[in-house]
Amino acid sequence: MPEESTWRSVFRNDLFKGKVALVSGGGTGIGKSIVIELASLGATVVISSRNEEKCHKAADELNALGFSGKVAAGPSTNIRKEEDIQKLISHVVERYGALDILVNNAGGQFISDSADISKRGFQAVVETNLQGTFLMCREAFNQYMRDNGGSIVNITIGNRNGMPGMMHSAAARAGVENMTASLCVEWIESKVRINCVRPGIIFTESGFENYGPAGEYFLEKIVPSLPAKRLGSAEEVSSAVVWLLCEGAGYVTGSVICVDGGGSYVALPLVEIEDKTNLPTYGYLPMKAKL
């Protein structure tokens, strides 16, 4: 992550002056980049995750870069628990008097063949990535945005061609995108805009360490297939998020912005397919069409 002294947002200074933002999973990776950008543009930013200690450490680190107390840690929050989310939103509204911006960045998944995913494993990922995002949106709306307006961005992952090896997460994130399309109409009378940013394969400080050897295999297979022939940066994601949150996107709601270097338009080569005919033919098919 670039130091504040050398990094500058492409957006104008004080774009979010006086605004209060909440970024879940804001202590590391993409979430941390979003927090830096919002704070650098004048917002007061609360970060949350299950590990409150990590949030305090991240907040102290970012404030030391020159954000003068703009970043604060929220209470420990497991987004699979409704009561944790309710307490988090209440904390932000009561302490800061507003919740103008919500970025749902927290989530989790693991790499696995779909046939090997247990019911419990599938449920855990869906509860985190889909249900948790819904509950964050619902509480932000009910506790503040219904009467005051606001802007929400949901961070999703996936691919228009599916996501072999992470089917459970792809299914949940697709649900988030469709949920966003539904909420944008329901909540527009309250002056609430809600959109999605769908990152591709993004380089972050932590990299793919959480996935172990599977993460290295993932990179080895996926990078050569990307049209951009490189990973994306966290700052490229945060720039898209900030645009959706700002007044310049005032007519944008229910959208999905892909930050993936064209990756959504290629298949993910994560499944090895043997060199043989896998589907029987119906009707006449010349030999050259089988090659």
TrEMBL record:
The alphabetical list of record keywords is: Fatty acid biosynthesis, Fatty acid metabolism, Lipid biosynthesis, Lipid metabolism, NADP, Oxidoreductase, Peroxisome, Phosphoprotein
Intracellular or extracellular location(s): Peroxisome
Keyword NADP applies: yes
- Pfam families recorded for this chain? adh_short_C2
Q: Which pathway does it take part in? A: Lipid metabolism
Catalysed reaction equations from the record: (2E)-octenoyl-CoA + NADPH + H(+) = octanoyl-CoA + NADP(+); a (2E)-enoyl-CoA + NADPH + H(+) = a 2,3-saturated acyl-CoA + NADP(+); (2E)-tetradecenoyl-CoA + NADPH + H(+) = tetradecanoyl-CoA + NADP(+); (2E)-dodecenoyl-CoA + NADPH + H(+) = dodecanoyl-CoA + NADP(+)
What Gene3D superfamilies does the record tag this protein with?
NAD(P)-binding Rossmann-like Domain
Q: Does the keyword Phosphoprotein apply?
A: yes
A single GO BP term for this record reads:
fatty acid biosynthetic process
Q: Which GO terms describe its cellular component?
A: peroxisome
Q: Which enzyme class, named as a word? A: oxidoreductase
**Could you say which EC number(s) this protein's record lists?**
1.3.1.38
The UniProt entry, under SUPFAM superfamilies, shows: NAD(P)-binding Rossmann-fold domains
List the Gene Ontology MF annotations in alphabetical order. Answer: trans-2-enoyl-CoA reductase (NADPH) activity
PANTHER family membership: PEROXISOMAL TRANS-2-ENOYL-COA REDUCTASE (PTHR24317:SF7)
Q: What does this protein do?
A: Participates in chain elongation of fatty acids. Catalyzes the reduction of trans-2-enoyl-CoAs of varying chain lengths from 6:1 to 16:1, having maximum activity with 10:1 CoA. Has no 2,4-dienoyl-CoA reductase activity.
Q: How does it assemble?
A: Interacts with PEX5, probably required to target it into peroxisomes.
This protein is called what?
A: Peroxisomal trans-2-enoyl-CoA reductase
Instruction: State the organism named in the record.
Output: Cylindrotheca closterium
